[in-house]
Amino acid sequence: MPTDLVAPNIVYILADDMGYGDVGCLNPECKIPTPHMDRLASQGMLFGDAHSNSAVCTPTRYGVLTGRYCWRSRLQRGVLGGYSPHLIEAGRLTVPQMLRGAGYRTGCIGKWHLGMDWRLTVEGELGDGIDPAVDPSLVDYAAAVAHGPTARGFDEFFGISASLDMPPYTYIENDRVTEPPTGLSEGGQFPENWRPGPAAPGFRHEEVLPRLTARACEYIERSAGQDGPFFLYFPLPSPHAPVLPIPRFRGVSRAGSYGDFVAQTDDSVGRVMAALDACGLADNTLLVVTSDNGSTFTNEALAQYGHLSNYHFRGCKSDAWDGGHRIPFMARWPGRIAAGGTCGQLICLTDLMATCAEILGLQLPVDAGEDSISMLPLLLGTAGAVREDVVHHSVHGRFAIRKGRWKLVQCKGSGGWSLAEEEVGPDAPPGQLYDMESDPAEQCNLYHRHPQIVKELTDILHGYRVDGRSR
To answer: Which helix (H) or strand (E) holds 65?
Structure first.
């Protein structure tokens, strides 16, 4: 640890599908009130070129907790479901494991979405004609769930197994459900939609965000009375569908029910900030608020409100274009991070592990955090840049790489839901090259104009894939 640093508490809030343009401090034309995130940015540092390591939920979470691009794992595209087996490999170092080894207490409250192993009541494996989402009796809900958060470095866990629109609809505390699903939810209609599946009698979708927020604040209050630092990982279930703002937030935005749900998400951030203040912990807490990918709502979908959920970036959640993975990111650490600072340097959500390691003076093993670069010098204002490039990955497994002003997309379409390959004209180049300084909206494809840059970026990406690391 640098000699003048004291091990801080670390609170990491990860919103679900919150776009760059959904936060007022990043979007002057934002139609959603976000006073708490705006205040947090003014008290710390706001990043304008932050990226999730994937354009969708599960792989980003893998990268946050392991410091490794998820496309190096078995998950090459898409996301997991609520009943999917565990993704983080046994023996792989995670951020909470590393911090726990350094004397931290570690808690995870919220949406896990990294798989866990449910005990079945029948012979066979998931996917072999066995689908617990259609029959609650196929899972032994009285048994412990294996390889979940408490098996990957967290002392305690309270939350849901995956996204709020994915069964099973029940809370899990540590490694057991709090109430077994005994019936089937029929699902909801857009935008309050969720998939049909097993549900516990007392589970109410609209109550999940308030309940998780209350548990996160309770964790902070409990930690205030204990010795040593703590790490709270708080992956929110919002503003991901189902879009269910509680009555107090309905109509507070000028961007429909989605905007209201973002406003409620901001309130959850504010409640965590208030808990830190009330417990006298704010001054020695590194607080990060960010999002797992861009908004699923395209700018066109919210055009009636004049709200650009992904700001002026092209595409949305799922895409290799920046709308899929350029995200809000703000960090506060009073006395260490200068208030009111902004940073335009490139960062990635895989950087949490290396940053925590440098704060604590830890040396990462060679087989851990392969794609994690410490951003501590940026936070402290002691360096101009720390990361040369970043690899982007779309829901369909398409790659892109950004280095400096240049971005190469290795497909003809968006790589996600915005523009399918077959919808691109046959005469289009096989890939896309954009100058992100002059063309951040990715409108002018320079692929054929700069073949040497295409080759350079292609070679770098190939090397990272072959070498198994980029750090």
So the answer is: helix 57-66
Per DSSP, 433 falls in state E
Q: What's the CA gap between 234 and 288, in Å, rounded?
A: 10
Of the candidates 166, 162, 167, 164, the one whose C-alpha atom is nearest the C-alpha of residue 182 is 167
Cα Rg, the chain, nearest whole Å: 21
**Of all helices (H) and strands (E), which one includes residue 232?**
strand 230-239
In the chain, which residues have pLDDT < 50? 1, 3
pLDDT (tens digit per residue) in 216-257 = 999 999 999 898 999 999 999 999 999 999 999 999 999 999
3-class DSSP state of 462: helix
* Residue partners of 244: CB distance under 8 A and separation at least 6: 192, 205, 206, 261
What is the dotted CATH code of the domain comprising 392-467? 3.30.1120.10
Rounded to 5 degrees, φ, ψ at 275 are -65, -40
| Alpha-carbon gap, residue 410 to 414, rounded angstroms | 10
Q: In percent, how much of the chain has pLDDT > 90?
A: 88
CA angle 354/357/359 to nearest 5° reads 110
* Cα–Cα dist 435/77, whole Å: 27
Using alpha carbons only, what angle is made at residue 111 by residues 106 and 115, rounded to the nearest 5 degrees?
Answer: 90
47, two tokens: 């990043």
Query: Which burial class, exposed, middle or buried, applies to 201 when counting CB atoms under 10 A from its CB (0-12, 13-18, 19+)?
Result: exposed
Question: Where exactly are the structural domains of the chain?
Answer: 9-387, 392-467
pLDDT, position 124: 77
CATH architecture of 9-387: 3-Layer(aba) Sandwich (3.40)
Identify the three-state secondary structure at position 407: strand
